[in-house]
Design brief:
647 residues; alpha/beta; 6-stranded mixed beta sheet; 5-stranded parallel beta sheet; 30 helices; 16 strands; globular
Amino acid sequence: MNSARDRSRIPAVMISSTMDLIEEREIVRKAAHDLGVWSVSMEDDLPRANDKVSESLGLVDRATLYVAIIGPRPSSVADGYEKSMVELEYERAVRRRIDRRIFIRAYPQDAVAMLDPQVQAFRARLNADGTTRPFTSIADLRDLVIDAIREHRRLLLGLPSETGRAKQRLEIGAARSAEIDTLLATSSPDNYLLASNLIAQIVELGIPTRQLCAWLDQIDWRMVLRQQQGAKDDRPAAGQRYVSPMATAICDLHLNLRPDAWQPVRRAIASAMAATRRPEEREFCTQLLRAIALLNDDTARDLLDGDELLSGQLSDSQQTIVARGELRSLLAPTGAGLRIGLDAWPGYFPLFAIEDQLQATAGISLLDVESSREKLRLLHEKRIDLLATTPGCLLGPNDTDLSHLRVVAVLNQSSGADQILIRGTQWSKNDSRWPEADVLASATWIVTAGSTSELFAKTLCRRLGIMPKPPQWWRTADYHDALEAMRGTSGVTICSTWEPYSSWMRQQDSTIGVLCTTADFAPLVVDCLVTTTNRDGKEIDNRVRQLLELWDNCLARRLYLEPDRISTVCGRFVRFEPEDYHKMIGGVRFMDSSEMRARSTNGEFEAVLDRVWAGWGREGEPRPRTTTWHHLVHDAATWPVARANRG
């Protein structure tokens, strides 16, 4: 069976839209991620592409589902072409005859008449396609996308609908059985992965356990792992393409199979993971197990055969170290206390410094989760009780419904730890004036998508009165990609990041300098502890009161500056040396509960929220209704209510 053709059977979503629809693209990306489907959009790979059209069409060629989101603005037109990028991508999807779902923002008829003629003509053309669906809100789009991806996955695997007739289900079960036999006979890693997906999906069709065991026993899991981790060199991040589908398939097998069928699979996968030796293999397996733990920690614990993947080695990459830290944290026993998801931001160092006291005195466990999007998902799933994040992440594309969230503490304010770096110019921060606005306007801007990094960069652009064009605005997945993009770009390049990543990037490249920091702006970045309103509020408040008592004591006695505690924090992350610790916390202003109360009463946190809302370009729009800045907890568990939400 042809390997390239087989690989196309793995669900993969291409997201096509104009560059201004950031929130809408994130909705599609999150839906795909939650359903275990690989996704890519044009901004993921185009920044480093010489021929943007060819690269964009190549992404369509690697997809099995094309999703287009059409809003009010026209798409960009590449040099030498008459049609827009979205039109070219759509036409390629039509020619390839892949599954398509077109989501068009619905407007009143009089508003449609005011749209750009190019947009009107393209919308009319799409409406004749037969695959279009109108949406009126982000929530509406989310529901439509989830249904579309679920249906596509079933269609791709040839499975019947939930209401399919018994005879039809038997017929398809027989057909899928024959296909699985064919796939397994090829001894191909790609086909093994396809077979595992099919087996996980058709368990519900009543296939005998004996047959499932016979199939699963034929899969060489080590071959699969080796092939997929090796695929990482195939752009765009092909190795990462396999992490989510493999994690989903393995979790599905664990959940759907009877114990006597699952145990041989568990032993085979665990053995394959434990046998990894090369750093690239360890990285892929660690990332895979982390992805499994985020979906189902019981499955991850069951697969972890010994501590091989959790023990560090000198050859491990930073990505492996970060993933291992998250994995170790996610799988650690937490008991019945409070679970907080947070990352390695210096503003949380006092919490890490007193982690033993938090656990012993208040039953509070700290879980490492780098991504705010993942933290929000774990909070919704009630796998954590609190998350630490910023208003920038709350009001950005990660989550738009704040009505179910409330902030229980505001721990710190960034006063220099968030930084915007510049490369490709002789200018330095010691100069009396910034580079000319036209130099900055024509520069390449690199941000971490949907994070405080992107918010800070947008805020700077608003202050300068510039608006970099979409091709100059590169949205990366994390700081590793940002560093690679910054070093691989000619001309003036600007990168918005934060400590400790800023220091690491400047250590790697001495030509990178600091353009500005949050100390140059009115308060924009504060870090909050956030919970949901559907939990036991009294229990949460009592636990947080204990946490703040320990937090206040830590700040008053400066426990986080004791050498032994500094070594503990540095050792926890295995990311930086003790001498870097003071430099990193130097850009953070910690707040005790008295200052939290005073600033809440004065409406200062409301002002931060307004700046964040404006920074995301939504000034003038009504803010989502939220309890975020109300009912904050202090040592008496009854913060005064801040000024009424003006949104």
